[in-house]
Amino acid sequence: MTMPPLLELRAISRRFGGLQALEDVSFGLQEGEIFGLIGPNGAGKTTLFNIITGVTRPSGGQVLWKQTGIEGLPPHRIHRLGLARTFQNLRLFESLSCLDNVQVGLGRSDRRRALELLALFGLQARAAEAAGGLAYGDRRRLEMARALASAPQLLLLDEPAAGLNPGEKQELSALIRRLAAELHLTVLIIEHHVPLMMQLCDRLAVLNFGRLIALGRPDAVRHDPLVIEAYLGGAGGAGGAGGAGGATEDPS
Amino acid sequence: MDVLLQILVNGLSVGAVYALFALGYTLVFSVLGVINFAHGALFTLGAYLTYLGVGGAVGSNGALAGWALPLALPFPVALLLAGVGCAGANLLVEAVAFRPLRRRHAEPLLYLITSLGAGVVLVNLLQIAFGAEGYALPADALGDLPPMLTLAGARLRSVQLLLLLVCAAVMTVLTLWLERSRGGRALQAVSEDATTARLLGIDSDAMVRLSFALSGLLAGLSGGLVGLSVSIAGPYFGIVYGLKGLGVLVLGGLGSVPGALLGGLVVGLAEAAVPGDLSGLKDAVAFAFLFAILLLRPQGLLGRAPITKV
Amino acid sequence: MLDGSLLVQMLIGALLGLSVYLPLAAGQLSLATPGFMTVGGYVAALLSTRVAALGGAEPLYPLPSLLLELLLAAVVALALALLVGLPVLRLRGIYLAIATIALNEILRVVLLNNSWTGGAVGIFAIPQPFGDPLGYLAALAVLLLLAGATCQAIARHPLGRAMAAVRDDELAASCTGIDSFRIKLLAFAASAVLAALTGVLAAHFFNTWNARQGSFDASITTLAFVVFGGSRHWLGPVLGGLVLTALPELLRPVGDLRLVVFGAVILLGPLLFPQGVVTPALLQRLLP
Ligand SMILES: Nc1ncnc2c1ncn2[C@@H]1O[C@H](COP(=O)(O)OP(=O)(O)OP(=O)(O)O)[C@@H](O)[C@H]1O
Ligand SMILES: [Mg+2]
Predict the structure, then answer these.
(1) Nearest CA to ligand 1 atom 26
(2) Which among B123, B157, B103 is positioned nearest to B45, based on CA atoms?
(3) How many domains does one find in chain B?
């Protein structure tokens, strides 16, 4: 890999009081890849997203975007550089219509483009409805449409498949692949469903207690003893990580 | 030297009232994360109830003109009963202005508005019942205590001393209770993290009611004491203290018990230090401090920086 | 019953309602509207009574002088709003409410204790630019139309969506590219300017001006306009301001209960009509 990474994390640490949520985490994302971030609950995955997107400041380390440090910039500035995200606990503009949610993401009034984006996620019929009234799966999709609206280069998805049924998860995974290819997106995705991640991602990073314990291609990560140990009895299930690479059932 | 001592004494006794006030806000704030704007009205209610308790009669402008309790209680008893009455009234405020919104997980802004509304209703009901005139508690309310004491050259009214003692006692008891007792620790647990507290089997609804009752009790006690100390200027007099109490609250740090005490004393002392020819500006001191602290240290003197989890 | 003078006061109410609405539309509760109105009124009162050159020869106060007052009041209010907003709006919502109460109180105390501003009695004999209430009615109606049209334009503009986004979820808005601090500051400044402009006209209309205009009572009353009318559409606070200003006159028989009714509106409003009387759904039905 001689190309400089699109996004590079250098020795990122974050403390919350007595808790070391992240410690010395370093890795880089190549342009165009779908990169997975997995790890047990509380491993620090969302905190890492927050640091990348400017929501939380790191206690130490650097975030390089196209080789320029962006740690410490406010979230809206980072967003304008081409990084967009979704939230683990869905943060839509509840009182706004789906159309307006997407137009906020666009940053301008463009009905046509907004409707196209909604259509991409099968939401065109819901355009005029308030986001707060949508069914759960639709809300997840709307959040992705809003994030994509700004035509980002890097899309950060925090558990986009949480709460979806196996069929929906499979659909979503296919959609992410398609979008990444068509829109030349780089994707950083957090997801607990390990089989899905094995199938979807080009590379994976595994966090445990705030430390990076494995990094590499899915088949390599899957057999890493540290990863298997971290997942023993965890929500992801060591069996899922070890065996069923193509399976779609939710182990939890 | 004597002048300084006098300023200190005056400042501390006023500051003690502000501290009690801020503490009342803090109790509710630390559990619910919102401010009960009806607090000032409860303070007024406490003053009026104390006045009635010691046998005072309603003045000629009120709807209840001439009415009085058939008996006159000793001041400490009347004060305590007023505190209990205000605790009850604050529970009512909680039930009407807070609980329905909590059930709906409404946005915090709405609590401000509904509690403000509850306060306005309460104050104006008092105005209708008692009229707009001022009331003074009888000078002999403290029985045989001499009205004025001299302490190392500083003159101190016994009411001021009483205020200081009550404030110190309340602070001590409350701090001990919060730190040591099951109930207090449960209250703190809820304020740290309501969801986890519920998982631990703590009834957070009961804790919310407890915090409102305690905060109402404080409002009532301080209202009665201030009523005795400076007389009741009318149904709105609690609002003035209530607004200053907010300044003190931000100064000390939202949600911090020692911060409430420190903020109260700082503002009380600063007000007492304002020279006589500028005394008109005294009422702006608390708010000037508030702006200064917002600029320099937004979380207040002893508050913790807020954390947002995503 | 609806005489000219009451209508003037109703329009003032509607404008003040809009002033409270603007920051609220971006999720910020500001109680400073009466404070900024006081400031605007003092700008008008001081200029028109102390600066002889503005008076002119006619019996009526010249309109160009009035326009100058409006301009100056807007500038003063803007400066004050930035001074207060810059530190405070970086903090969470509750701080703005408290800081604006503090601002009101500081203004009130300073104005009351300053001989230059007439102290506790205030300023008397403010000259009249209009011969009868109709002139004020027209001037206020123009201001209200301008303000309403601006709100309407903003609502359909990315700025309006950004304000709503900040109101719904500030953090998500920031992560969607919105400079939420700027949006909040803008809304707060606009609110201040509108209140100050209203204050200029009100001071001339009332003929006398003092610091009591900015009391805590007034904060609550103006807040009630928005709570009653609704904060989801600019017509809400306008309706609230009109109706609740007229209400005391209509309810005159109730007498002392007037403020209890106000309190009850503020208390029960959010419980019964979480969105106020004028909701987007209602408007959609009325204006398809
Ligand atoms: N703002 C905060 N203040 C204090 N502690 C925090 C904060 N944010 C996160 N933490 C703590 O940091 C640790 C990592 O949290 P994080 O949300 O990053 O985990 P995660 O890997 O996303 O977990 P999950 O799979 O459950 O979403 C947790 O222990 C969490 O409680
Ligand atoms: Mg997470």
Answers:
(1) A41
(2) B123
(3) 1
Full-model pTM: 0.88
Higher pLDDT: B21 or B126? It is B126
Determine, for residues C256 and B124 on separate chains, whether the beta-carbon distance falls below 8 Å. Answer: yes
All residues at 6 or more sequence positions from A1 whose CB lies less than 8 Å from its CB, including other chains: A30
Say which residues have a Cβ less than 8 Å from residue B301's Cβ, sequence separation at least 6: B251, B252, B253, B259, B262, B263, B266, B293
* Neighbouring-strand partners of residue B154: B151
Radius of gyration of chain A, Cα coordinates, nearest whole angstrom: 18
CATH number of A7-82+152-245: 3.40.50.300
Mean pLDDT, chain B, rounded, equals 85
- Within a domain: B309: no
Least confident of A235-244, B235-244, C146-155: A235-244
What phi, psi does C123 have (nearest 5°)? -115, 135
**Whole-complex ipTM:** 0.87
Q: Which residue has the tokens 């986004």?
A: C165
Residues B70, C263: Cα–Cα separation, whole Å: 32
Residue B302 belongs to a domain: no
Is the pLDDT at B202 greater than 80? The verdict is no
B307 lies in some domain: no
Model pLDDT for residues B145-178, shown as the tens digit of each residue: 777 777 777 777 888 888 888 888 888 888 888 8
* pLDDT tens-digit series, residues C1-11: 458 889 999 99
Query: What is the position in ligand 1's atom list of the atom closest to the CA of A88?
Result: 27
Percentage of residues of chain B with pLDDT beyond 70 = 97
User: How far is B259 from A198, CA to CA, in rounded Å?
Assistant: 52
The 10 Å CB-count burial string (b at 16+, else e) for B271-301 is: bbebeeeeeebbbbbbbbbbbebbeeebbbb
A242 vs B65, residue with greater confidence: B65
CA distance B269 to A248: 69
Cross-chain Cβ contact C227/B97 below 8 Å: no
Q: How many other β-carbons are positioned within 10 Å of the β-carbon of residue B46?
A: 31
Structure confidence at residue C250 (pLDDT) = 75
Q: pLDDT for B65-78, tens place per residue?
A: 888 888 889 999 99
**How many other CB atoms sit within 10 Å of the CB of residue A57?**
12
Contacts 24+ apart (CB under 8 A), C110-113: C110/B281, C110/B284, C111/C38, C111/C42, C111/C210, C111/C211, C111/C214, C112/B280, C112/C211, C113/B280, C113/B281
Q: For atom 12 of ligand 1, which residue has the closest CA?
A: A21
Atom 29 of ligand 1 has which residue's CA nearest to it? A42
The answer to whether residues B248 and B19 touch, using CB atoms and an 8 Å cutoff, is: yes
What CATH number does the domain containing B141 carry?
1.10.3470
Expressed as residue numbers, the domain containing B261 is 2-296
Element (H, E) at B82: helix B75-93
Q: Which atom of ligand 1 is nearest to the CA of A44?
A: 18
Measure the CA–CA gap between B16 and B222, rounded to whole angstroms.
9
Angle, CA of C78, C82 and C84, to the nearest 5°? 120
Sheet holding A68-69, edge to edge: A19-29, A7-16, A60-65, A68-69
> What is the distance, to the nearest Å, from the Cα of residue A134 to the centroid of all Cα atoms in its chain?
22
Tell me what the mean pLDDT of segment C63-90 comes to.
93
User: In sequence order, which residues have a C-beta less than 8 Å from that of residue B18 and are 6 or more positions away?
Assistant: B241, B244, B245, B248, B263, B264, B267, B268, B286
**Chain A partners within 8 Å of B307 (Cβ):** 16
pLDDT confidence of residue C43: 96
Tokens of C112: 């009351």
